[in-house]
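Slide 14.
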Amino acid sequence: MPTAIVTGASKGLGRALANGLAEQGWKLVIDARSAKDLEETAAHLSNQTSVVAVRGDVSDPNHHFELVEAVDSLDGSVDLLVNNASTLGTTPLPQLSELDAEAFSRVLETNLVAPLRLFQTVAGRMALGGVVINISSDAAVEAYPGWGAYGASKAGLDQLSAVLAAENPDLHVYAFDPGDMRTDMHQAAFPYEDISDRPEPESVVPALLEIITERPPSGRIRADQIAAPA
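Slide 15: predicted structure.
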């Protein structure tokens, strides 16, 4: 069975994708900052597949080595790396004129620097033809007031993904834009709004699984570009 690392897997899209992979027989290494949510997710997934849960923050380089140790406890090879963990930063979302520089740095560290560091840490264990998926956002290409820090980090992640693909032609590297979803993060961005009209994260998983299975040319892919299964 192939092995995947999915960061930020205790909630939202990360948990939904981990569940979809488990149903297909993937072995999983998952992480999250919340021990309680991570333990609950791992207990659910363990009914379907082998799973190792590692509590930690992706902005901590030492945590990346813990994830590699977890991979080694399975079979030592990484077939799929999903950089899903991210942060909005300060909420309610501030205008750029009011954005604290240290807060901006923390967003970049989590959303942009950490995915690169984790890739560097696991690169030697990536299987030939393996897949790297960096979860992006429409905020990477659209200008939304208040989304400057998050959008800048995701725009950087898009470019980082493109360069990684150019430098690693033996891998499949994607920046994946899932679109709006009904998640805790999205609610934090709009604390006073009803977001129940947004689709659940599970609705995006078929598009991700198709990418992982079919492995189209590396690049930036939006969920709505992938046809829904018949």
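Speaker note: The chain has a mean pLDDT of 94.
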